[in-house]
């Protein structure tokens, strides 16, 4: 059976170095004469991507359901081209993917005031705007990465990096919620056997992180690609998840 290219996704919190590591990996693959392609989501050059870009820069306001579906549509725009490249033997490196879409949407909360036990004060209880199941539903059946890296960065380190806070979700509260959703996604991916999920400490020097990424990617290179067809995300739960999402 002929082998295909590997699908590698690099995920993480904001300012964790995703773009830096994706670019570094592409350079290593090119140096090793491995056919490769670099994709970044959201793709802000498409009509859908331009709407997303305006939203992320807080230039426009959109309903939370709408922006999540736009992010998903942006990925579906490129889904067939990703599969085609993989089947042709090209390794695809993706800077952010469906997991970010789910994590950042499902992490959104609205504070709800509730009375404390003593009746003298109120405390905010976070209420999720969108359920995890609803956020996951439109991502089902997208091409599944063979290897996903989650770059974890501490709030202190993220804030020390240039540009932090310029976009909508770059604050401690949101990032902590995002981290929790990523943990849930990682558990699901690992238990499903669809792909490998690797968590890396992005507080480390970027060269150390780069080497850790390469150590995980090398087996794919040494085996000259991946055997078997491109798998799909959560495909076995497609019908149940889509039905459940209608009532959530």
TrEMBL record:
Pathway: Pyrimidine metabolism; dTTP biosynthesis. It holds the Pfam family Thymidylate_kin. Keywords: ATP-binding, Kinase, Nucleotide biosynthesis, Nucleotide-binding, Transferase. Its EC number is 2.7.4.9. The keyword Transport does not apply. Residues 10-110, 134-212 form the Thymidylate kinase-like domain. This is dTMP kinase. Belongs to the thymidylate kinase family.
């Amino acid at each position: 059976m002929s082998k295909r290219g590997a699908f590698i996704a690099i995920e993480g919190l904001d300012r964790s170095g995703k773009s830096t590591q994706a670019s570094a990996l592409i350079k290593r693959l090119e140096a090793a004469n491995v056919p490769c392609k670099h994709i970044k989501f959201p793709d802000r050059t498409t009509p859908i991507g331009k709407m997303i870009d305006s939203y992320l820069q807080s230039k426009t306001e959109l309903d939370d359901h709408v922006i999540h579906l736009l992010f998903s549509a942006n990925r579906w725009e490129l889904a067939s081209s990703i599969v085609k490249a993989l089947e042709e033997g090209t390794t695809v490196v993706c800077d952010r993917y469906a997991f970010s879409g789910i994590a950042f949407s499902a992490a959104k909360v609205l504070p709800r005031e509730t009375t404390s036990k003593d009746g003298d004060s109120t405390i905010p209880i976070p209420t999720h705007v969108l359920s995890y199941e609803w956020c996951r539903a439109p991502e089902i059946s997208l091409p599944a990465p063979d290897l996903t890296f989650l770059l974890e960065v501490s709030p202190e380190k993220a804030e020390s990096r240039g540009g932090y806070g310029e976009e909508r979700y770059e604050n401690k509260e949101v990032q902590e919620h995002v981290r929790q959703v990523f943990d849930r996604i990682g558990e699901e991916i690992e238990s499903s056997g669809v792909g490998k999920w690797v968590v890396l400490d992005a507080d480390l020097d970027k060269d150390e992180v780069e080497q850790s990424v390469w150590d995980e990617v090398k087996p794919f290179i040494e085996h000259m690609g991946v055997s078997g067809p491109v798998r799909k995300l959560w495909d076995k739960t497609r019908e149940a998840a889509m039905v459940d999402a209608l009532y959530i």
